[in-house]
Design goal:
It contains 3 helices and 8 strands. The protein is α+β, with helices and mostly antiparallel strands. An 8-stranded mixed sheet has the order 2-3-4-1-5-8-7-6. Strand 6 and strand 7 form a beta hairpin. The longest helix is centred in the N-terminal third of the chain and has 11 residues. The structure holds zinc ion (ZN). Zinc ion binds next to strand 1 and strand 5.
Length: 136
């Protein structure tokens, strides 16, 4: 079951510059950064009420975020929906003909398990399902 929006992820070219803008210009609460080798990104986290904004900078040229920035110049990358049972939700969406990019959950930031649905299934919006890990 989908519980809430967990975070909104934005692809950026220069994480340090953007962290300064989100923290000092927007005035958002900066929570820190984490590298996520599985996705070849460095992520910076901000709290906005009970939703998070995640800035994603590619760690290398073969990162999926690199390809996205090359194609679109950065910007809104995905919306993450918190679920209570990710395997059940992957199955449920597939039964409703949603094309999943991940048929099995994989490792995300903060030890969460995540799976992406294909943007073709939702008018070009990339949705991430996220089940929180122990430490988040
Ligand atoms: Zn995400």
């Amino acid at each position: 079951m989908i519980k809430k929006i967990d975070h909104i992820a934005i692809a950026v070219k220069n994480l340090n510059e953007e962290v300064a803008r989100y923290r000092d210009v927007l005035g958002l609460e900066f929570l820190g950064t984490e590298t996520v080798p599985e996705q070849k990104v460095t992520a910076a986290f901000f709290r906005v009420g009970d939703v998070f904004i995640e800035l994603l900078e590619p760690m290398s040229a073969d990162s999926p975020i690199s390809a996205f920035i090359e194609k679109k110049g950065g910007g809104l990358h995905h919306i993450s929906l918190e679920v209570d049972d990710i395997k059940a939700d992957i199955m449920r969406l597939q039964e409703k003909s949603v094309q999943m990019l991940d048929r099995e959950p994989r490792q995300g930031a903060h030890n969460a398990r995540i799976a992406f649905a294909h943007p073709k299934s939702f008018s070009g919006v990339l949705f991430e399902l996220k089940q929180k890990g122990d430490a988040s």
